[in-house]
Structure formats: C-alpha cells, structure tokens
Amino acid sequence: MGVGYHGAYLPWLEVARTRWLQEHAVSYRELEAGGVHLPVIEVRCRYLRPVRYDDHLIVEAAAHGYRRSGIAFEYRILREPDGALVATAATRHAAVGPDGRARRLPQAVRNALRESAAEDGPVSR
User: Fold this and answer.
1) Is residue 125 part of a domain?
2) What is the pLDDT of residue 123?
3) How many domains does one find in the chain?
C-alpha cells in the first residue's frame, strides 16, 4: 500500500521509552538486573497521518504517571522535516519481578518521574 505498517509503531515506542529510562533513571538492563521488569499492559495508538517508507520520523516519549508498581508513557510521532504530527500513543506498564509478581518501581525511576513532571514536556527523542 506504500505506507508504514501499523504494527511497526510498537517497536518505535519501545525504543523511545527505553531511551527515556536510560537518559533519566536507569538503563533497562540495570532495571532487569535489579529484579524489575516492565511488561506492557495497555497500548493505545492514534494514527493521524500516513507515513511513507522513506520518511524520517521523530518519536518523543514522556513518562506521565506512575503508581507504586507501574508507569505510563505518552508518545508523539513527528515526520521530518515538516514536523507534522503523524501519531500519538500511550502505554501502561506493570512493574513486576522475575516471578511475575508486582514490585515497587526503583527509587531512581520514581525520582526521574517526579523531575520530568516538573519539566512538563517531551523528555526523550
């Protein structure tokens, strides 16, 4: 059809949130080494404009909320060079241990969430 496949957006979101964690708190590898995993428990994506195969995209991620054992992210996907907003998305994640039971988010992640809430804007590209 000449447009980007809708399922390809999910890995783009994963890269953006992994980068957010790395830049603001801990790497995902460190998170897992500490016994915490963040499986996706909900995804929402709204496709506003089609993307073509050779388009260059920017995916912005912002952590926008957390509970004791979970975190949520919002995303904006923009096309370069015109800056057109092509999609918005959100994900929610549970914080669980290797046994699948709920775990508390590490202090470094909770601190980063408080700081990013104060900044109030996209925090990772």
Assistant:
1) no
2) 42
3) 1
The whole-model pTM stands at 0.84
Pick from 27, 26, 6: which is nearest to 77 by CA?
A: 6
Reading phi first (left if > 0) and then psi (alpha if -120 to 50, else beta), residue 35 is in left
d(CA 98, CA 26): 18
* Confidence band, pLDDT 50/70/90 cuts, at residue 119: low
Q: Using alpha carbons, select from 104, 92, 110, 34 the residue that is nearest to residue 68.
A: 104
What CATH number is given to the structural domain containing 19?
A: 3.10.129.10
User: Is residue 97 in a domain?
Assistant: yes
The one-letter amino acid code at 46 reads R
**Count of beta carbons in the 10 Å neighbourhood of residue 32:** 13
Task: Report if residue 124 sits inside a domain.
Answer: no
